[in-house]
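Z., the sequence and structure:
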Amino acid sequence: ILSSLAREEQVLINLYERVSPAVVYVAVSGRTGSGNGSGFIISPDGEIVTNHHVIDGASRVDVIFADGRRARARIIGSDRYSDLALLKVNREGLPYVELADSDQVKVGQRVAAIGNPFGLAGTMTLGIVSARGRTLPEPSTDGGTYSNPDIIQTDAAINPGNSGGPLLDLNGRVVGVNTAIRTT
């Protein structure tokens, strides 16, 4: 039992050391004040995925890399209905994550979340996929609601500031984007 536990721990340590350099802290300021979240680099030339709600209303977006370097980011695209946004920084040779096919994710599969909860950089939590195909009701611009479909539910701890960070399989590939917590 001890050797299998040590092997699993080594898998998690390796996953964190390999992926965490590609996870960024996203700091925003704008008409509604300031905020923060997480994001992850998807290309070596500075494309970064985060949540729409992290950058919504931002007039300035800064990205702080795992090594402490900082860069101003441009919002390339954003979709409130999928709660996704694409940022771009003018950097080359950045570490980046591999994307997985989220349709292949199974209930019971172990997953890890890396992000910046409560502004604390570089935190990793572990859990399982608890369910697939959840919907997440959100307010719409016309006063009604819409549902963000096909949400992956996990019991990995997701807290304020984890938004926009990657949900990873144990191979370190992104299977989802951490979006919300439900407390009731």
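The chain has a mean pLDDT of 88. The radius of gyration is 16 Å.

Let me know what you think.
H.
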